[in-house]
Write a structure and sequence with these properties.
Blueprint lengths: L1 H37 L1 E4 L5 H12 L3 E6 L4 E2 L8 H5 L4 E4 L10 H14 L4 E7 L3 H13 L4 E7 L5 H4 L3 H6 L1 E4 L5 E2 L4 H13 L7 E4 L5 E2 H12 L4 E4 L2 H10 L4 H14 L10 H6 L6 H8 L4
Parallel strand pairs: 1-2, 1-4, 2-3, 4-5, 5-6, 6-9, 7-11
Antiparallel strand pairs: 8-10
Helix pairs in contact: 2-8, 4-5, 9-13, 10-11
Length: 307
């Protein structure tokens, strides 16, 4: 009798504890949903590789998104500072995706001016996309950090995107069967833009990232010759890597119509980024998302699947 009574009491207690735990979990999820719904995020560069992914993921979480772009409903153009304040009005969070690059001339001044406007408009949390291993970009990071004052700022430094090969800078070359770059035999741990977007969203809507710098890469480093082989395998089309000097790369860009000064700057940037110092992989994706990053072969299979 006593044993049966004890068992009944234990079962009742366990049920009560489970009910309490389930209620607490449900309440926490409800509170989280309410927090997300109350947030308004300005996404700059909202039509770009990372911007559109970040905007979509935020919307899936019920977050209000102001999709800033040069041609969208919320007009935002890094080359037109008059568009910044209207885009910031009403936002409390911002994804800062500077164009053309944080290492570019004028980036420090732009980050200072944008940060001051963001602070004045009551933006309390920002995530800045930066380049991994770009010393010149650090000055722009610091300029934004100082300008926003006591607002929360997270910095995400990314390696080259895998998606550059099908929707970015290298796509035209891939389509023509040749990847021509000043990369030599250097290996780069390309990060999947979908992983990067998830990391960025986590820093925008979850606590605990203020003041942190997350370096994100893919799980392994590949040379451009290995990249070409992966794409060829996935697509069934011949794709080769053609290494070239920075000067030759600048000349090629000029042939495509890029201004000489801009072409020279971009060629020098690529040569610096691809000198080997960015080859080591990081655990940034796993630390933020709790899982391993997607491998380049998985990206290639999705992007270049044979029809």
């Amino acid at each position: 009798m006593t044993t049966n009574k004890d068992n009944t009491t234990t079962a009742d207690t366990t049920t009560a504890d489970a009910t309490t735990a389930n209620t607490a979990t449900s309440n926490a999820q409800t509170d989280k949903a309410r927090t997300d719904e109350a947030r308004t995020v300005l996404v700059t560069g909202a039509t770009g590789k990372t911007g559109r992914r970040v905007a979509r993921l935020l919307e899936e979480r019920g977050v209000r998104v102001r999709a800033g772009s040069r041609s969208g409903a919320t007009r935002f153009d890094w080359e037109d500072a008059d568009t910044w304040a209207p885009a910031l009005a009403g936002a409390d969070t911002a994804y800062v995706n500077y164009y053309p690059d944080l290492a570019a001339p004028g980036a420090v001044e732009a980050m200072k001016a944008f940060g001051e406007l963001a602070a004045a408009h009551g933006v309390r949390r920002l995530t800045l996309l930066s380049g991994r291993g770009e010393p010149a970009a650090v000055g722009a990071e610091e300029a934004l950090r100082e300008a926003v004052g006591d607002a929360e700022l997270a910095v995400v430094r990314a390696s080259f995107f895998s998606q550059n090969f099908d929707e970015g800078l290298f796509a035209e070359g891939v389509a023509a069967g040749t990847i021509a770059l000043p990369g030599g035999d250097t290996a780069e741990p390309f990060v999947d833009a979908d992983d990067l977007a998830e990391v960025i969203v986590a820093t925008l809507v979850e606590d605990g990232h203020a003041g942190l710098v997350h370096e994100v890469t893919g799980p392994r480093a590949l040379t451009f010759a290995e990249i070409a082989a992966e794409i060829e395998r996935a697509s069934g089309r011949p794709v080769a890597y053609a290494p070239m000097s920075a000067g030759e790369f600048a000349g090629m860009l000029g042939g495509f119509g890029m201004p000489e000064e801009e072409a020279a700057w971009l060629a020098d940037l690529f040569a610096m980024l691809l000198d080997g110092h960015n080859t080591p992989v990081t655990d940034g994706v796993k630390r933020v998302l709790g899982r391993e990053p997607r491998d380049f072969s998985a990206y290639a299979a999705r992007a270049f699947a044979q029809e």
